Amino acid sequence: MPTPDKKGARGEAIVQAEDREVRVLFTNRALAEAESAMGKSVIGVAQGFADGASGISELAHLLRAGMEAARRDGREGGRALTLNDAYAVLDEAGFAAVAEPVMLAIANVLAYDPRQEEPDPNA
Q1: In degrees rounded to 5, what are phi and psi of residue 34?
Q2: Tens-place pLDDT, residues 16-54
Q3: Distance CA 14, CA 24 (A)
Q4: Phi and psi (nearest 5°) for 24?
């Protein structure tokens, strides 16, 4: 669900790793970056998780894109996050603990419809 000050096609989630929470953020830009890195469409990758054609490498690319978008959104500075950073989170949390929040956050972006946004009660 978008936060009141950040509307639009956004999907956010928390991945619980060993002793830390890893924030991920998906936007259309983050998904396009993941598609470019994978050479596959995000919709095709999502379908692939259902039929077995997608796996760990695709999830790592999606996770990296979401982690990097969250880092930029939070203006955290530092170096850009890499695929190795995503694999470290996957190793700590496990495939299922990463796949579920990542895919739910991506689904929020793909299903976004501005006509369905709740009106701002402060407007």
Answers
A1: -65, -45
A2: 999 999 999 999 999 999 999 999 999 999 999 989 999
A3: 6
A4: -125, 145
